Amino acid sequence: MIHLMNTYKRDLYLEKGNGSYVYDIDGKKYLDLVGGIATCSVGHSNPEIGNVINKQSNKLITASNLFCSKSQELLAKKLSKLSGLSKCFFSNSGAEAVEAAIKLVRKHSKKNKIIAMKNGFHGRTFGSLSATWNPKYKKDFEPLLSEFVHVDFNNIKALEKEICNNTAAVIIESIQGEAGIIIPSKGYLKEVEKLCKKNFVLFIIDEIQTGNGRTGKYFCYQHENVKPDIVTLAKGLANGLPIGVTISDLDFEPGDHGSTFGGNDFCCNVAFKFSKLSCI
Ligand SMILES: Cc1ncc(COP(=O)(O)O)c(C=O)c1O
Asked: Which of 12, 50, 170, 211 has the fewest C-beta atoms lying within 10 Å of its C-beta?
């Protein structure tokens, strides 16, 4: 692997997958407890997904965002219905979905401070890394975006203390994933929502790991009956194909933001068909 940058420590070569199993280059079979890091929700080589992939790959991969796309619109309509939020911006990864969320906050709030959670994870691009907590991931890349602060997760008093006149948004995972599957106390997310509303602070929920039906509801926050201002989703949205989405009633204007691959027909069509399998 001398020609690959040293971002991941690994030594096992996997060649194929089927259902819950993956096979290495010598044909050895493994039970896959990783699932493409929470992306392959209905397993490897799923025949229903495979069919959609084959059909769409022979029809259209991408014609770019310079043109309208039925697949993109169908998926956006579905996600809007599921979330109760009216607009989608499609990208290619979780970190990009968070970047778009941060830009929406900047555009619509006249305030700068964003409160994130200790042990929270939101990605490794400059904006999303600013929201991520782990100092180990950040130390060689500072300065990051200023005015991000981190408070204890599942501690409403800690959040209340940090909110001030300059607080633009709170960003939170509904279950902290990378921190070790930390489920907040019942009612905590509702309290966060109330606090945000009372202080005119935008409420961002990162559902990148918990969304797509993985916790028994399409979005995990729906267990607590809360309604965020911005939702980010990625990972399992297209059963392993690269796609991310930022969902909100807030909007951009042409030129504010964009992506060459984001919202391509191929990933959107697979995600749309797949959403029928993952909707509860
Ligand atoms: C909650 C959460 N947000 C954001 C990300 C970043 O997603 P990506 O690796 O697709 O950029 C992850 C990835 O693990 C995540 O778990």
From this structure: 12
Are residues 73 and 201 located together in one domain of the fold?
yes
Ordered DSSP codes for 160-214: HHH--TTEEEEEEESSBTTTT-BPPPTTHHHHHHHHHHHTT-EEEEE-TTTTTTT
Residue nearest to atom 13 of ligand 1 (CA): 123
CA of 6 to the centre of ligand 1 (A): 19
Q: What is the DSSP letter of 19?
A: B
State which ligand 1 atom lies nearest to the alpha carbon of 125: 11
Q: Is 271 in contact with 238 (CB distance < 8 Å)?
A: yes
The pTM of the full predicted model, rounded to 2 decimals, is: 0.97
Please tell me the distance from the alpha carbon of residue 199 to that of residue 158, in angstroms, as a whole number.
Answer: 15
Alpha-carbon span 124 to 48, nearest angstrom: 33
CB 132 within 8 A of CB 123: yes
Residues 159, 240, single domain; the answer is: yes
Kindly state whether residues 106 and 238 are assigned to the same domain.
Answer: yes
User: How is residue 48 written in tokens?
Assistant: 């229903």
pLDDT by residue (tens digit) across 165-224?
999 999 999 999 999 999 999 999 999 999 999 999 999 999 999 999 999 999 999 999
> How far is 41 from 124, CA to CA, in rounded Å?
23
